[in-house]
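USER: Write out one fold?

ASSISTANT:
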Amino acid sequence: MRSAESHPRAGLPQGPPQTYSTRAAGLVADVDSDPWGSVRASLYETARVLSSAPWLSGHERRLAWVLEEQAADGSWGEGPAPYRLLPTLSAVEALLATLRYEAASGGGRKRLAAAAAAAAGLGALGTLSLVGPWPDTAAIEILVPSLVTQINEHLDHPVISTLDRLGPWTRGPRLTVPQGFQEQLPDQIARRCQSAGDVPAKLHHTYEGISRHLSPAEVHLPGGLLGSSPAATAARAASSPAQQDETITALTDVARRYGGLLPEAAPAATFERLWVAAALAGPGLPDACLATVRGWAAEIYDPAGVRGAPGLLPDADDTAVAVLVAALVGQPRDPAPLAVFDAGTRYDCFVGEDTGSTTANAHALQALHAYLKWQPAASAVHRPRMALARDFLLDQQQPEGFWTDKWHASPYYATQRCVTALAQYRGTRIAGALRAAADWVLTHQRDDGSWGVWGGTAEETAYAVKILLALPSVVRQPQGARALDRAESVLHAANCTPGYRHPALWHDKTLYAPEAMVQAEVMAALELLRTHRGRGEQQRTGQPGRRGQKL
């Protein structure tokens, strides 16, 4: 049965209704006081540490949590079946590894529970491996075949092969690598790293996928938390005992923040602060937040490019939002760091990236527009590049009117980012693209007033509301006005319910939910709605609108 585990923050403010300024100030203060960030613990990551670092304090807590998180069908993870493949592989491998590690203890109730859960997980994998298409999550092409190989090796081990609780898996066929994955890819990548004598930084975050194929003595890896990933760090320690002391310190610090569990990336404070600030600045950053956010902007901006977390590569997305936030708080910073990500017709998220990101390019466009308001003399330098990014976004729009992106499961996120960036332009093609996006949103509102790719969520409803509000001609029409009216209660419910748990929709190795960032989006959408209604009432009556002032 799934536990009620949530992220360590207390949640939304309780008590009487509060204004946007009060809530926004409280959220900014919360974020400012937490150097780790508000992403929840990751099943995938926790299971990887359970497997690779059984010596780490909190092992029993991690094992209990993995067992609690198993669903009735034997799988683990959030979202539709294709997203549950990797978490389920991770959990099954961790349970089998734990059974081997604890074989000398003689069994007992805990060992029986682990074996039963592993057997159910193996059964679920038989179904999950046939599903597809697979999501574009981080290094899934490496992590899936690596875990399949490890599970099969466990099943062939004498300790595991004699466990009756595993049923037919102790005698029958082993797992096969799902269609679309290459069984030898992890080994091929590891051999290239060994030949080079180094593991490139872009592989650090998902190092666990190749670590067992490497000889640690032949490659160089930095200390501390490797690639911001507990799983990668634990894998390095497992393959290089000489680094265990340093690894214990790094992992213990993270686990302490999460009650013994582990998130997918840590710390996430840079990413969180930038996205929270940008969202709250949409309707206007309250004065009470300004000094703190200016401090964030000054600290985060880096002329060499901004990293989403220590140990990751600089990327265009975080760099663009850092430039954007600095301009929004009146402290414009040179967007020159974006130049390194210039791929000709678009900005790459990372240097040498294979697939482009629509939202990274949308953020870059927003950042450059915001910067040019302070430095119009720089237009001649930046406008030609901006036109290419604009055209890239237009070319990526789907025939139905929406956009998609590799950093988020929902098209509502990508569409809102692209609409916001493109709405700063004029022209027939732009107008057509924006109207197509609005029509798509209006067509897909759910009966309860929400929007969502799998089911209605407050997060996606906030994006849909922002898309519509970006097009005044649409919301002045009856259909648009009704859509906003119906959405308002969905946003209020999420904004005013203490401990509201937002579904995981963001892509890393698996799905995750950046709680503070989503709260900021919902708050901002409600405040934009309030302002919109106030303007409408003032136009009708000549008096300031009062509806919805309390959030």
User: Anything to note?
Assistant: The mean pLDDT is 90. The chain is about 55% helix and 0% strand. Strands lie at 506-507, 511-512. The radius of gyration is 24 Å.
